[in-house]
Amino acid sequence: MADFYQNGIVTTLHSLSQRSNEDLEAELLKFSAIRPMGLILPSLYSELEGKALPAIIKHLSKTKYLSEIVIGLDQADEAQYRQALKFFSKLPQQHSVLWNDGPRLQALDAKLQKLGVAPKELGKGRNVWYCMGYTLATGRSESVALHDCDILTYDRKLLARLLYPVANPQFNYEFCKGFYARVAGGKINGRVSRLLVTPLVKALKKTVGHHDYLEFIDSFLYPLAGEFSFRRDVLNDLRIPSDWGLEIGVLSEMHRNYASNRICQVDIATTYDHKHQDLSLENSEAGLSKMSVDITKAFFRKLATQGEIFSTENIRTLKATYYRIALDYVEMYHNDALMNGLTVDIHNEEKAVEMFSENIMTAGQQFLDKPMDTPFIPSWNRVVSAMPDVLEQLKEAVELDKIEFSNN
């Protein structure tokens, strides 16, 4: 029996029945006449050569309700960009490929750098930010979804369920976060969400006290899910981090900009698997270790804007509180796994908790050492204010790239 429990202050839309994808897509097709729908795909060139993205494109090619697909292409030279244009040409929808490493978009980025309104770091956050700007520039989509390109268990129903809450004209949601059980290959995955974010939020509640923001984050069943959807107007004021704090940063922005009744989460998949990051026990600048530092700093930054004062002493207390709670969660997940015939390696789980615990101290020290550090990319409203024709320049650059390189 499906769960129908409403968790916290954000609406949860469950999968309570076996509704067919055909039924969902037929309804979305009707909605598209009122609210045209788009999709953003932030991609590395290497993902074109993997297993996940070719399968995703096959699914998307059968999706009739989409008006536009915007692909952000990172780490590609000219030959690879040409190949990407051919690769995505299978899509029947209006689609555009942003060649982020190409001379035109690099030139535009240099102009924005001079004005102090460009992303400071390479990575997914920068890719997503430019895709969002291009989506604003075209104006083709009213409701937009975003998901990663490494989902090995992708199904069209994932996208349909993700878009439905912001596409249905009877709903008033501005933002929707996807969730799912991170179970694949006979084991429970999602270590950063299970063993860092959830116990860290619980520990912050104990050490910092009641906060609407912490209640908000604790309402999400999978806060680190890379799949979310939104109404186009959300993009104007959204500031997103350029580091691994992207997902928490986006949620923090939604908490700042919108009432909780305009935000929801939706069950989008029964199984979900994607590319796994290394734990990187010996290197805090790589893999899940860096991710945990960036996510923890995102919490410190947000709570500081809420008036919280952090010191070495209370960060040390937070670490100790987190560690005890996280160890309890290791046992909870182990028992849940056994009940369902799944495996969990307790030794590796506890090693992850120990690393996350150390990284809370690392993140705290970095936060205290650099109080002026601002990893957020400026909102598109601010960028347009600094360069009024930036969206036109962005759109033109993408279109000229396609014209120049698609037929040669």
Automatic annotation (TrEMBL):
Name assigned to this protein: Glycosyl transferase
Domain of life: Bacteria
